[in-house]
Amino acid sequence: MTSSDNKKIGVLMGGFSAEREVSLKSGAAVLKALVGLGYNAVGIDVDRNVATKIVAEGINAAFIALHGRYGEDGAIQGLLELMAIPYTGSGVLASALAMNKIFAKQAFQAAGLTVAPYRVVCRGEVFDAKTFTFPFPVVVKPSQEGSSVGVSIVRQESELEAAMQDAFKYDREILIEQFIKGAEVQVGILEDKALGAIEIVPKKEFYDFEAKYSPGMAEHILPARLPADLYEKVLRAGEEGHRALGCSGYSRVDFLVTTEGLCYILEVNTLPGMTDLSLLPEIARGSGIEFGELVERLISAATLKIAQ
Ligand SMILES: Nc1ncnc2c1ncn2[C@@H]1O[C@H](COP(=O)(O)OP(=O)(O)O)[C@@H](O)[C@H]1O
Ligand SMILES: [Mg+2]
């Protein structure tokens, strides 16, 4: 698709996940870029009537600028498949897998990637902290959330229950993971290849919601300060993580990289933030791809993924 073939693009944004506000910002940046490039593009705020809105707008392709539940988990991708509207990014299965940290970890392990030791706890399960096989500190997180919502670092057993209750607010399945002390490194993937790796140095204890979205709360270092061989290793691990889940096109893969040179994969974000201050656009810019070009390359790769 090009700006001259007069197809109409819907930028799907907003939605009703915990990351609605972030998505509205991603959507606004993408829409501005597309219009600036001469595309016929409209913003569509996603709610339960999204199918009706898509029909009313008569769009020919969708740029998905949603994050979190219903947008990043395969739900909207399934709707677009049914409606035969090509869309950006990963398909139904990869999106659903990436959104579920438990299934994603199993796929990463099967692909030989390094993951933090973990244990799954389901809501209502009788849980005995004495049965732990790894020591404190640990990280407690909901299986299906993003933006560090519901994530906490627990230093001692007495704090565990409160952290678990908090994570259970967001999901009925949670993970308790070994705390990994390492550099926070994220790999940007475009057209299924690693573009570069950025290092994040949060001003707080970890890369929590505030550190992610408040200016000045996290330092970004591009390229990540890693020895050349380790930098190369994390790029390859990023591509493997992307492939292990069957992702299409682009993603941002989060790692913790230790001083021993281990690259612990945390997750693959199939719809990473797309404001012009977000990490994937920053990584892209570092390899000479400006925001407008990034958006254009993503929309020109929009396809259906089922039964191709
Ligand atoms: N096992 C871990 N050890 C240390 N820090 C972690 C661990 N898991 C998560 N974190 C911290 O929490 C942040 C969010 O975790 P992540 O698994 O990426 O979930 P989210 O989908 O919310 O981004 C990470 O960027 C990191 O700062
Ligand atoms: Mg993350």
TrEMBL record:
Gene source species: Geotalea daltonii (strain DSM 22248 / JCM 15807 / FRC-32) (Geobacter daltonii)
Highest taxon above the source species: Bacteria
Name listed for the protein in its UniProt record: D-alanine--D-alanine ligase
Keyword Ligase: yes
UniProt record similarity statement: Belongs to the D-alanine--D-alanine ligase family.
Any GO CC annotation of this UniProt entry: cytoplasm
Pfam families: Dala_Dala_lig_C (PF07478), Dala_Dala_lig_N (PF01820)
Pathway assigned in UniProt: Cell wall biogenesis; peptidoglycan biosynthesis
Positions bound to Mg(2+) 1: 254, 267
